[in-house]
Each structure stands twice: as structure tokens, then as C-alpha cells.
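Record type: monomer structure entry
Structure origin: computed from sequence
Chain ID: A
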Amino acid sequence: MNIKHVFFDLDHTLWDFDKNSKLTFQQIFEEQKIELELNKFLEVYVPINLKYWRLYREDKISKSDLRFNRLKEVFVTLNYNVSDNLIITISEDYIKYLPNYNHLFKGTIEVLEYLNKKYKLHIITNGFEEVQKLKIENSGIDAYFKEIITSESIGVKKPNYKVFEFALMKAKAMPQNSIMIGDSYEADVMGALNANMLAIHFSNEVKPQSGVLSIQSLIELKQFL
């Protein structure tokens, strides 16, 4: 592999979304006096959130629909009475508080230090523009990356190959010299492959189809790059 550019996803790849999201909801529940057991809430929230993100990725719902309806469905499922106004407040506070929690996956800094000496590093994320850049800055990893591309800023989302083509153009990179690393097989791996890039799947659970390199910890990247 003649790699010169390494592109990372952010959430669930470098930035520990589940841990940071849980801490954010914990703060909101305390402030708003939500009398629900947090782990029970998250058991319902996590799959519903994934469902709405898929719809958003497929351009079937708007950003505001995603933010409101994922919470609305969770509270309805749990038979917990919450006004629409409070749901709006919770959704706004969630976006506001989330970047304040900055747990990274184990080995993130070590791997970025290692890769930064050999390659140009970049981020491609489907997350919201106003949140993702704060996450990167607040977690202290912004200095490692040359380009940070948010799908929202260009109007299309991963796995659309146009996102990757735009990222390659911004980074002044050729696809054959570029590799994408991310947790989503559909959005990150397939999206990159469709743009003629290489890809590595980062996942503790789902194994991708044969022919795609898979890692279960970021430290493993040092074996391949």
C-alpha cells in the first residue's frame, strides 16, 4: 500500500460517542428532573437513534426531525409523559452539552501521534457541523488533522461517493494513495471503496465481508500503517 493520506470517521471511531452521550444525558436528566433510570432510557434510545440516523443519512428526514423525533419515540416507548416543549429543550441541551464531554477511544492519541509522523491525516464525518468541530477542538485532537470535512457543509452524506471525492479534492489526495478508517461498514467502508479508496473497518462486533481489513482496537493500525 502506497498510502499518503489517512481519513478517519469521528464518532464511534476516535471519539467515544456512547460514553460521552451517556454523560450528557445524565447531566440533562439531573437538570430537568427526568425520573427515568438512565440505563433503561439508553437501552431504548440507542437503537432508535441509529434508526433515525439511517433515515437522515438517506435524506428521508431533516436534522430537526432527527433531533426531535428520536427523543419523542423513546419517551413514548417508555410511557413517560414529556411535553413537546421539554423534548425540544432536551434536544437543544443535548447538542449544547455533548461537546463538553471528550472521552476518546483507548489508543487514540498514541495512534494519531504515530500516524501523524508518516501520513497526512483528515476527518470525514456525517455529524452536525456545529458540534463536530467543537468535539475535535475540545478533545485536543484538532492539531493532528489537515482537513476536517463534514457532510453537512457539502450537502451530501456518507456513503455517497461525492463526499469522499470532495474530501480527496480538499486534501489534494489521490484515491489510490488514501485509506478510510471508520466504524460504519455501510457509510465508511463501502463509501470509501465506491470512491476507489482503500478502507479499514473498526468494529468490536460486526465483521465485514471478506476482503476488507477489520480491526477491533485503534492500536492495531500500527501493524498495517
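Annotation 1: The beta strands are 5-8, 120-125, 145-150, 178-182, 198-202, 213-215.
Annotation 2: DSSP finds ten helices and six strands in the chain.
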